[in-house]
Amino acid sequence: xxxxxxxxxxxxxxxxxxxxxxxxxxxxxxxxxxxxxxxxxxxxxxxxxxxxxxxxxxxxxxxxxxxx
Amino acid sequence: xxxxxxxxxxxxxxxxxxxxxxxxxxxxxxxxxxxxxxxxxxxxxxxxxxxxxxxxxxxxxxxxxxxxxxxxxxxxxxxxxxxxxxxxxxxxxxxxxxxxxxxxxxxxxxxxxxxxxxxxxxxxxxxxxxxxxxxxxxxxxxxxxxxxxxxxxxxxxxxxxxxxxxxxxxxxxx
Lengths: 68, 174
What we know:
The structure holds 2 protein chains of 2 kinds. Chain A is α/β, with parallel strands linked by helices. Helices cover about 25% and strands about 20% of the residues of chain A.
């Protein structure tokens, strides 16, 4: 089950556990502004093929704009 | 949206999936690093004045007014013990209702904005409504500070996004 985390935990996971940040909003919103170091993987295009850009052996943190 | 993405990744075999539910709005509001075409734009969080005088519902206005004067402010925000905004006392109310409680004379439910909001979108809204200041709170309604129109407009000007450019930007978004 995915675990919900707050900002401090996100920072810790990225710093200490090489977590991969993934923004799941559409490309234009990602290009406008995103968290430094995050990849873009829009929800509508998230499938087995696109997920190959991620390392399944490392934690993945997904986010969008806010509590959507 | 991020919840569905997290579950989808799990279904694809990812074993360590986390969801940052507060999202990039929370990240930007905290002033943490960002990238992209609009990275580094001034936001309400960075421009808001902190250390705002606060009081509780039962406080006497005379005592509140003395504290506000001493802190060189012209308003006081009524909050509960958790810092949640319940109301606002403006200068004219503070001067005219010495014997009342804050609850009796406060402006209830003042308008607020979120800390991640960009000044280039906030300033035109404040200008069109002739608002000289607005409260900045988190999504739970917890007070962060007060954003003054003049200060926000000055910051935009320093960033090269003065009135002309800002209005042009607004027109483009219509």
